[in-house]
């Protein structure tokens, strides 16, 4: 055989992963650039820019989650420059890494490469592409998903220490991206895995996990010290205050099974079928409760339900439909193992493939084509304008917004006036806005007090929250420290309230005025002492 000849069987060893890499990167890249919902689309843009300029989350601006995402985006900005392209390279690379990981993971589950390729492609369409741009909930969920993959591989080979260390690592950065669903999954997996390891006398993985936890705890303390962030600030902003938000939501959480099934049926159907198969095996004695097979099933079952629970508890658009190809892939692997008539098995597998294909197309049209995650489904996204009209760093983004009624060019012209006006200010100012990229294109520091500025309690403590007075002092101290003389709100932003200022500063300490662009609060700093 000539040295240039090759076996076509192995050609697909390269075609499949290369296709997944290219497709998953560019499908996210393509949809990320369309439209803008300023708070969500640019949630980590200014935060990352601030880090490059020595302003750190928790210490210099209030955050309740997403710290790791800010620092990771700052890395991309440092590497590729502060611009739109480096922003979506971040999310596109993550979509690519997740998709190729899913492909190889499914092969490890003994799926044929062609089947693993199909599910991985469908996964890439419904994974990060739903948002397109970096977003803390998605980072947290997908880092937990990688831990989920590693747990299953680790249970099948418990003696491999690296897997256990990486499980803790990815849960760690998932938690630092957002506290939930990582917290739910850490608790559930601990309850399932530790008894399994103890009963089956696998002690080394337990030791590895415990030492990994200790290592990452001290690593956190080390970084807090390096960044000069007091542990008390970290505890309140990142641990205790978010917990109070979650408890308030949990108290009013009430949802029916019928509602859940209608919304998540393509996730629940394969999970229920798998449940029936595994429970039948359990009750007939074919598997033990603490066997590898049943433990993996429990991990999958609770992974799906934790994400559904988190999705319903959060106020964000649905982003967990990537579970559809994933859960059906697990069902596919299970059907391959069952002793069924060959024709019947083929029919069932083809039916699964059909369902996954149809549901992927359905959710792609609903979420990607309409940019529903960023509330653009009722906006004509064909009437966009090039965002470089505002600033060259935004080149490549197509601006159309659901929060502005009128031509997108007019919105950008107003923002251009905001930028020019702020740059001409001689006084130290603070700008409170939902346009979370303005800090990166304004020469003057805008001293935003928090990453985002909602008043529903998601961003900062509101009246009646136990940390209201604490944040009030935090806000005042920032004004005093930065010697802020004027606080600006953009009049065009109807969905941001001046209560972000008036609820936290006594009325006698400021005066209010307006011009054609801004609502302005002039502060008597001496009054705040």
Description:
Among the domains are: 137-252, no CATH class; 406-528, no CATH class. It is 62% helix and 5% strand. It has 20 helices and six strands. It has helices spanning 8-32, 38-41, 45-52, 67-80, 84-108, 113-126, 136-156, 161-177, 179-199, 203-226, 231-251, 257-283, 292-313, 323-337, 342-369, 408-423, 438-441, 468-481, 499-502, 525-528; strands at 385-386, 398-399, 429-432, 486-490, 510-514, 518-523. Strands 3-4-6-5 form a four-stranded mixed β-sheet, with no helix packed on it. Helix 5 packs parallel to helix 7 and helix 7 (136-156) runs antiparallel to helix 13 (292-313). The longest helix is centred in the C-terminal third of the chain and has 28 residues, at 342-369. The model is unreliable at 1-6 (pLDDT under 50).
Secondary-structure blueprint:
Elements: H1 8-32, H2 38-41, H3 45-52, H4 67-80, H5 84-108, H6 113-126, H7 136-156, H8 161-177, H9 179-199, H10 203-226, H11 231-251, H12 257-283, H13 292-313, H14 323-337, H15 342-369, E1 385-386, E2 398-399, H16 408-423, E3 429-432, H17 438-441, H18 468-481, E4 486-490, H19 499-502, E5 510-514, E6 518-523, H20 525-528
Parallel strand pairs: 3-4
Antiparallel strand pairs: 1-2, 4-6, 5-6
Helix pairs in contact: 1-5, 1-6, 3-4, 4-5, 5-6, 5-7, 6-14, 6-15, 7-8, 7-9, 7-13, 8-9, 8-10, 9-13, 12-13, 12-14, 14-15
Short description:
This protein has 529 residues and is mostly helical. Helix content is 62%, strand content 5%.
């Amino acid at each position: 055989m000539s040295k240039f000849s090759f076996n076509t069987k192995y050609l697909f060893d390269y075609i499949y992963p290369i296709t997944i890499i290219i497709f998953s990167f560019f499908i996210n890249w393509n949809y990320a650039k369309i439209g803008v919902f300023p708070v969500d689309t640019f949630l980590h843009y200014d935060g990352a820019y601030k880090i490059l300029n020595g302003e750190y989350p928790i210490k210099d601006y209030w955050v309740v989650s997403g710290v790791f995402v800010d620092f990771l985006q700052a890395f991309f900005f440092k590497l590729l420059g502060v611009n739109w392209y480096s922003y979506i390279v971040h999310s596109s690379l993550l979509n690519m890494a997740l998709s190729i990981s899913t492909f190889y993971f499914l092969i490890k589950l003994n799926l044929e490469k062609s089947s693993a390729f199909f599910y991985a492609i469908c996964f890439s369409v419904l994974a990060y592409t739903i948002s397109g741009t970096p977003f803390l909930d998605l980072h947290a969920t997908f880092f937990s998903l990688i831990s989920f993959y590693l747990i299953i591989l680790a249970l099948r080979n418990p003696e491999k220490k690296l897997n256990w260390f990486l499980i803790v690592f990815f849960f760690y950065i998932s938690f630092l991206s957002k506290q939930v669903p990582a917290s739910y999954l850490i608790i559930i997996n601990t309850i399932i895995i530790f008894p399994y390891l103890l009963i089956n006398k696998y002690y080394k993985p337990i030791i590895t996990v415990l030492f990994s936890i200790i290592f990452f705890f001290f690593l956190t303390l080390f970084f807090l010290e390096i960044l000069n962030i007091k542990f008390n600030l970290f505890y309140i902003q990142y641990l205790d205050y978010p917990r109070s938000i979650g408890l308030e939501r949990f108290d009013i959480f009430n949802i029916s099974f019928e509602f859940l099934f209608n919304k998540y049926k393509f996730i629940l159907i394969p999970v229920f079928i798998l449940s029936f198969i595994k429970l039948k095996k359990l009750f007939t004695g074919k598997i033990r409760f603490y066997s590898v097979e049943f433990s993996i099933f429990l991990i999958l079952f609770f992974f799906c339900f934790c994400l559904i629970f988190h999705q319903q508890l959060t106020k964000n658009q649905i982003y967990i439909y990537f579970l559809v190809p994933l859960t059906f892939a697990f069902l596919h692997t299970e059907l391959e193992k069952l002793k069924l008539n060959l024709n019947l098995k083929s029919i069932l597998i083809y039916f699964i493939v059909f369902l996954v294909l149809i549901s992927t197309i359905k959710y792609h049209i609903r979420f990607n084509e309409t940019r529903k995650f960023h509330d653009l489904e009722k906006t004509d996204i064909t009437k966009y304008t090039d965002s470089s009209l505002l600033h060259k760093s935004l080149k490549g983004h197509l601006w159309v917004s659901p929060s502005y009624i009128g031509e997108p060019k007019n919105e950008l012209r107003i923002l251009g006036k905001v930028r020019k006006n702020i740059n001409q200010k001689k006084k130290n100012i603070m700008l409170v806005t939902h346009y979370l990229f303005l800090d990166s294109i304004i020469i003057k520091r805008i001293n935003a007090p928090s990453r985002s500025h909602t008043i529903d309690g998601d961003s900062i403590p509101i009246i009646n929250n136990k940390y209201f007075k604490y944040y009030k002092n935090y806000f005042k101290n920032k004004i005093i420290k930065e010697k802020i003389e004027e606080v600006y709100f953009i009049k065009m932003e109807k969905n941001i309230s001046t209560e972000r200022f008036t609820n936290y500063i006594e009325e006698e300490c400021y005066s209010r005025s307006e011009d054609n662009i801004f609502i302005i609060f002039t502060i008597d700093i001496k009054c705040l002492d």
